[in-house]
Amino acid sequence: MKYRRILLKLSGESLQGTQKYGLSPEVLQSYAAQIRDAVQTGVQIGIVIGGGNIFRGLSGARKGFDRVKGDQMGMLATVINSLALQSALEDNDVKCKVLTSIRMEPIGEYFSKARAIEYLEAGYVVIIGGGTSNPYFTTDSASALRGIEIEADVLLKGTRVDGVYTADPEKDPAATKFAEITFEEVLDRRLKVMDLTAFTLCRENGLEIIVFDMDTPGNLGKVLAGEPIGTLIKH
């Protein structure tokens, strides 16, 4: 395998599958099977999940929610998703721990770098819920932060698109995909990969990013084996 330890960022929206809201058991099972297969190759996996399938703080704020309370609701949504994925993983015989950035035992242990690494090295998948625990930060920022903290080799951003394009492929049929691109070029071209806070954290701490389509079964294994699917963002 190309990587020893990874941080996998999963989109909350992807977990709703074809539904407009909530959790799709089929998507959860598909993700769990891919993660199980990856764990069996010996790679250590930390995971951060978004909460957009349940509640999104920013859009809540536009509808009259206080922004801080909206973001806190979003953090709780990520914990619900973390528990759902933990349940699906355990159903696939994968050892898994949920750590939370907000104290909420017995739902999950309080996150610390030392605890997370201890579990990873003992063969557990570690899901870190609750975002950064601070309002005004996205789960992309949480995934960048946790990826750096657990000393991951790479941040894998599993989304519904299969990489980074010159423009939005859903709006521009002429958009072409990058196999590789530098952090600087992403900034120069103002490409939307993740929010700027998350992106800057990765760039300044040397954490490479691979954007790939997690919704196609088997893709996680291909990325981990070094196959050139998705887009690698590097220095």
Structure characterization notes:
- It is a single chain.
- The protein is α/β, with parallel strands linked by helices and 235 residues long.
- The protein has a single domain, classed as Carbamate kinase (3-Layer(aba) Sandwich), CATH 3.40.1160.
- It has eight helices and nine strands.
- The chain has helices at residues 25-39, 57-62, 67-91, 113-121, 139-149, 183-189, 196-204, 219-224, and strands spanning 5-10, 44-49, 96-100, 109-110, 125-129, 154-159, 180-182, 208-213, 231-234.
- Strands 4-3-5-2-1-6-8-9-7 form a nine-stranded mixed sheet, with helices on both faces.
- Helix 1 links the parallel strand 1 (5-10) and strand 2 (44-49).
- Helix 5 (139-149) runs parallel beside helix 7.
- The longest helix is centred in the middle third of the chain and has 25 residues, at 67-91.
- The chain is globular, with a radius of gyration of 17 Å.
- The model has no long low-confidence stretch (mean pLDDT 95).
What are the main properties of this structure?
8 helices; Carbamate kinase; 9 strands; nine-stranded mixed β-sheet; alpha/beta
Percent of residues in helices comes to: 25-40%
Using the coordinates above, name the CATH class.
Alpha Beta
Q: Note the beta-strand portion.
A: 15-25%
Q: How many angstroms does the end-to-end distance come to?
A: 22 Å
Q: What is the overall pLDDT average?
A: 95
Walk across the major sheet and give the strand order: 4-3-5-2-1-6-8-9-7
SS-based class: alpha/beta
Examine the coordinates and then state which fold CATH places here, giving the name of the CATH topology.
Answer: Carbamate kinase
Shape, principal axes of CA atoms: globular
- Return the domain count: 1
How many runs of DSSP E, i.e. beta strands?
Answer: 9
How many distinct helices?
8
Helix-strand topology string: EHEHHEEHEHEEHHEHE
Quaternary structure? single chain
| CATH architecture field | 3-Layer(aba) Sandwich
